[in-house]
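Lay summary. Proteins are chains of building blocks that fold into shapes, and those shapes determine what they do. In this project we predict the shape from the chain. Here is one chain we studied, written as its sequence of building blocks.
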Amino acid sequence: AMAFIPLLTEYLTTKSREAAWDLFSRVANFGFLITGVFALLVAIFAQQIVDSEIGIAPGFGEEQRILLAQLMRMNLIATMIFSISGLVMASLQANQHFVMPAIAPIMYNVGHIFGAIFLVPRYGIYGLVYGVIIGAALHLLVQFPMLFKFGFRWTPALDIRHTGLIEALKLMAPRLFTMAGIQLIFIARDNLASRLDQVGAVTSLTYGWMIMQVPETILGTALATALLPTLSELASKQDWKKFSETVERSLRVLIALTLPIAAVMSAGINPLVRGVFGFDESISSLLTWTTRAYLATLTGYVIHEVAVRAFYARKEPMIPLYAVIIRLVLFLGIGILGISLFPEIGAPIIAIAELALLIEAIILLVWLSRRTHEPVNTNTAIIKGLISAVVGGVVTYLIALYLPGGAIVTALIGMIVGGLVALIIVWSEAKQLFNL
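And here is the predicted shape, written in a compact code that computers can read:
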């Protein structure tokens, strides 16, 4: 979908809305069919994918592997929904509508959280998958009605010789391989975790990543999603100066906000994890530290969100593919070396290996600066963000530690006060969020 926006924008600009919707229908039909075939193959071979030495969880016991294969098959429902929902998001953005595409990822997280908090106590681990499916359905349902506002008409056609479809596939094929690379990282993560002699390793990685994704989705995904059509338009005009200025301004805002958010959340997360999820002491402690490790990668995630979209706006989908290969190699290297040297730490080491994504994002920005001949400078935002992170984190920790009252209440108060103090420090950058 991300790679599809520039082409759909071009159709809306140079042809007609009817032609754009015809192209959308053909791409959606083809995409849903291919996803269905892929989902069927995964469902058939799920057990082999789990059991293989290079599969998802070869280190688990037999019962756990059977359960994981069942969960994989259920997750394919969400995959089918997303094959349409992602394209719906792309079409709304190409039509310069950003509210529902920004809300959709949040609703997906709502489904995740609903499953984790309300369904897991009743249905066990299946509750997490139900939450994913609910989130995927919400992701689609909040957006779909808006299509008709822009004159959507579905075309029941599937002609692989259609010029627009061929052009779309040329742009989207590298993106599909990029997404496959990202999925390999998740498979590698669970593969490594399954080999640890640590109870709750996979669970802590799953929940820790989900918690980190809340601010990442609200800020990084939402802003970068709204940014792509603007970048696509600037790229079509070859206005590289304004293109780079837009990227730089967005990065300044995201860096200045996410550094203190990560610090404040890390300082106050412990009692919230214990109170909300209800795990025993050892798993709660493991989840807390794994979440903190993931939060250390938060800024890398939001930088990555903007950087990859800049290349898709330029219709250069191969560069993010090259970058994700570098990230995969780095992740495997850091993860394998980490659990070999520090096996007693376990899951948090695997989470911190996602710093490979920060390296990928930096590489993308360097490539982007060279391609546009316009450097991207975020030094001021980094310095102020780090200062606000230290101050906000310390304030949060001290309030949570010394303020009388229940642990959850004092942690929440600490995070609110610490967040406000941090916001004051980065306010000059943060207020630019309203001008993007």
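What the prediction tells us: Residues 5-153+161-435 form one domain.
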